Amino acid sequence: MGVLGTFGLLVIFGIAYALGPPPMEESQSTTLYSSDGEVINEQHQGQEREWTDLEDISPHVVDAFIAVEDRKFFDHHGFDYTRIGAAVLNNIQSMSMSQGASTITQQYARNLFLNHDKTWDRKIREALYALRLEWHVPKEDILEGYVNTINFGHGAYGIEQAAQMYFDASASDLNAAQSALLAGLPRGPSYYSPYVYPDRAEDRQQMILDMMHEQGALETAEYEEALDYTLTYEAAEEEELETTAPYFQDAVERELVDRYDLDPDVLEAGGLDIHTTIDPDMQESTERYVEAELPSDDPLQGAAVSIDPRTGDVKAMVGGKNYSESPFNRAVDAHRSPGSVFKPFLYYAALENGFTAATPLKSEPTSFPNPHGDGSYEPGNFNEVYADDFITLAQAMAYSDNIYAVKTNVFQEPEALVETAEAAGIESPLSANLSLALGTSEVNVLELTKGYSPFANGGEQVEHRLIERVEDHEGNVLLETEPEKQQVFEPELAYITTDLMKLMFDPSMNDYAAVTGHSIAHLLQRPAAGKSGSTPSDSWMVGFTPELVTGVWIGYDDNTELDHGEYGQIAKRIWVNALESGLDGHLKQDFSTPEGVEEVDIDLDTGLLADDACGPSYTVSFLEETAPEESCVTYLDDEEAEEEAHEERKNKESEKLMDKLKRWFGSDESDV
To answer: Could you cite one Gene Ontology molecular function of this protein (predicted)?
Structure first.
């Protein structure tokens, strides 16, 4: 090392020794703020945590932490030089400082006094603190402080809170299996959460048990008993979890690490000010209506998300009906089939491919051949209700006609729907098959809600945003985000699709079936558009105003079939009440009509231009010069001419349908 190097180390050691023991009462708190600056949660550290003496902590806890974090803890003087050497070598090879070799002493020093910046200045100061701890504080006290100050996730700081929250046990009573599980959490409290990712958590637990066995902390019989032990988790105490938007807060913590690459140790250390996008009023009303609508005596679950389509800011998020009973975030982590809620993407693609709101297709039981085997694909309408006649795209959207949707999917290229949905922001894998028109590929509530934003904002895809800014305890900005958006849809066609989605609330459309939004139309107090959808196990409602998109899902976690007769309207009621309550006091804005779009009255019976001499009509938008030119009076009182016209349309449709099916299925690129 040389004389100068040795002298330098002696000086550092001398300074560390002369400074005496470091102050042990410092603490920092991480504070989460709403979009208007209101504090929604404050996570305390240091003396704010529930402290447990080391002698009152199960020895299995000590053994587990030493096995996984610092096997030489009782032998070194603050540093494990072998691990440091290996880490330095790896960092030099990778030209980074990504790999650490921190001992328990170093981690405790960092948690108490320092930030987690990966800089040499921080590492030098950390070394000084660690030396002061090692030379002036007994090993047992360091270990005691460490297990009492680390973050175990879901608001539990320190081993006693963690033991009580996860296992409803005292830290003194934890067995080897439970201790190993808890020892694995601080490395990534969100990533290894046993509530959200039980497989990850228990894989890490088994790894730690292996290490404890290898290091002699567990005899073979104890080790095998621990491996066989069945872990069961308790809900956290109500007072620990009754905070604003708990599902949202978990999502924020995860995105900081996974999306923005914030060092997990920074979150563990605390001292952060995290400014989020949540709107407390919208959040409160959404939580209230989810709780009010979902039965307390039934395992039926629900999730809801509200997003500002102009920025992508998430204003409300509910991941279940009771966080303390189930922290699993169904708004983000549950992937379910969206059913007919997927049709707006289909019909936008159809408009791009030459359809208009008045394009006629026949609604009748239809069998589509299966290109990859025997049998056929035979979709059906809800309750087997069909027009048995030609209907327009506008009517198909309002009634959610499945036959029209699948035929539309056939008439387009196989990838058109997939490309449109992906352009809107759908990231989950989609299968380019006939049934995708009816929403058979699984998505989550957040991405589907975000995917509706281009319809609401004039065609711009937006990235969802939970976090505006993060600062450390000294006010340094660690992260600052801006809205991310790009034009993906033509504004005129996005508006026409929105106009079509408004028809689900329009009683003038009632014909062979009632519009799908008739049960809640009377509750809407402002212009809104949307689409409902269902599968045997799911019920959805996604809709929007110019300033808010809200998506709601209900169903059972285990995919038990839903009683749509009893529960089929819940998602719609949550949606309309959360939307109206969340926008209470806001101006009632309508959607802005872009140039090149005109409104035309269409006859409900024929799909042609309306006339006072004909029957009921509805108003819908078209690109200029694309509306029907023929008037409904052409066939007035002329049943023979009308029948001939229908027969001609049917023949043309059948020819086009078969031609498309041959082209589609002949390509062998997709299946039903």
So the answer is: penicillin binding
Distance CA 453, CA 309 (A): 5
Active-site residue identified among 58, 102, 340, 363:
340
- Name residues whose C-beta falls within 8 Å of residue 507's C-beta, 6 or more positions apart in sequence: 515, 518, 521
* % residues pLDDT > 70 (the chain): 78
pLDDT single digits (tens) 116-174: 455 445 555 666 666 666 666 788 887 888 888 888 888 788 899 899 999 999 999 99
Which residue has better confidence, 657 or 636? 636
Of 34, 35, 69, 490, which residue is the catalytic one?
69
The strand pairing partners of 1, in sequence order, are: none
pLDDT digits (tens, 9 = 90+) for 342-388: 999 999 999 999 999 999 999 999 998 765 556 788 999 988 999 89
Residue 340 annotated as catalytic: yes
Which CA distances in Å does 16 have to 20, 377, 479, 618, 631?
7, 77, 34, 82, 93
Inter-residue contact 408 to 416 (CB < 8 Å): no
Strands 460-462 and 485-487: antiparallel
| DSSP per-residue codes, 263-328 | -HHHHHH---EEEE---HHHHHHHHHHHHHHS-TTS--EEEEEEE-TTT-BEEEEE-SS-TTT---
Question: At residue 396, what are phi and psi to the nearest 5 degrees?
Answer: -60, -40
Domains and CATH numbers, the chain: 46-229 (1.10.3810.10), 286-583 (3.40.710.10), 595-665 (no CATH)
